[in-house]
Amino acid sequence: MSSSTEDDLPLLSTGITPEWLGAKLGHEIKSIENTRTIWGTGSKLFYTITYEDGIEDDDDRPKHICVKGVFSPEMREDQPWTVSLAQREADFFTKIAPGVQNMIFPKGWWSDTSEDQGIAIMSDLVHEGCTFPPEVASYSVETVKNSIEQLAGLHAQFWGQDEEDHPWIWNNYDPAIRFMSASWDEVVREPGRPKLPDHLMDGARCNEALDRYFTERNPRFRTLLHGDTHIGNVYFLPDGRNGFLDWSAFHFGSCFHDVVYHVTAMLSVEDRRAHELRILDHYLETLHFLGGPKFDRHHDPDVMLEYRRSFMTNVIWLICPRTLQSRERVDVLCERTVAAWDDHQVIDTILNQPKPEAAGETGEEESDAGTE
């Protein structure tokens, strides 16, 4: 599925040729048609393949594919961290996807990385009858619970593991968010940005909270995360189940990162307020059912503290570069984030906790799973 040749990963879409694809897929290709392209953090190039032998129906090779990598020179220059995300997604399909259980994601056909590129060749989900959310939408609690069950399965499978167990899964997520948050004071005052409450216009304080969230995550809840579970990375199968796209940000962190980031993006503010604890309980029950630890939010104060702190992961919607997401999506998810931060007093919850050195703790270096 992967190759070790690092010198032939094209940096431009013009490098995706029948010869190149044929070498990666292991079949002679007569022609390819670029049916559409989606530009973003990672470029998605969609192709229809005609093979030399003319055989149409063959489950062992794809006819409709998505080639994902960083093919935009502008993105590579303006947001250099996106290359690490492309490399991470390619590594997912090579090293992690074959063993992942209880999750739905696109079928990968080939992937590889080089020093300045990462490319994954996946099935084109449109031709499998899948559908995708619009830029902005709100979904039912039952739809969100289906996603939460899958996340619980991923988390249970990798519960308690970290970079010592998988040295190649270094944390590429925190540096990317810090990079974007560094210019907080300027970004939130740009014309046309969503209006934030005064206390969220203070970049120094918000960045302090972000840094403390990253450095003080409770290791009791550490597992492998999808890392980017917002509405744009979800798709729907014909049978009604959900799947997850974009595995470019998977890393080890707090399980509630995936949960609250998804819940905030998928539910209206009113539905989140009314149902988020029921969804949390469903997550905790499913986590334990699928082999993870057992947690009780009513009798274990660490659960709700870490849950509330984890809403900090929605920070991206307050400072998201315009080149990464549509204005429509940023505006709505910023509104949902601000409401969630206000409901859970996220900044104060993080900053009012004793610092690890003062409390005699060591943050993420300590480890203690829940009750088995």
From TrEMBL:
<protein>
    <recommendedName>
        <fullName>CHK kinase-like domain-containing protein</fullName>
    </recommendedName>
</protein>
<dbReference type="Pfam" id="PF02958">
    <property type="entry name" value="EcKL"/>
</dbReference>
<feature type="region of interest" description="Disordered">
    <location>
        <begin position="352"/>
        <end position="372"/>
    </location>
</feature>
<feature type="compositionally biased region" description="Acidic residues">
    <location>
        <begin position="362"/>
        <end position="372"/>
    </location>
</feature>
<dbReference type="InterPro" id="IPR015897">
    <property type="entry name" value="CHK_kinase-like"/>
</dbReference>
<dbReference type="InterPro" id="IPR011009">
    <property type="entry name" value="Kinase-like_dom_sf"/>
</dbReference>
<feature type="domain" description="CHK kinase-like">
    <location>
        <begin position="120"/>
        <end position="292"/>
    </location>
</feature>
<dbReference type="InterPro" id="IPR004119">
    <property type="entry name" value="EcKL"/>
</dbReference>
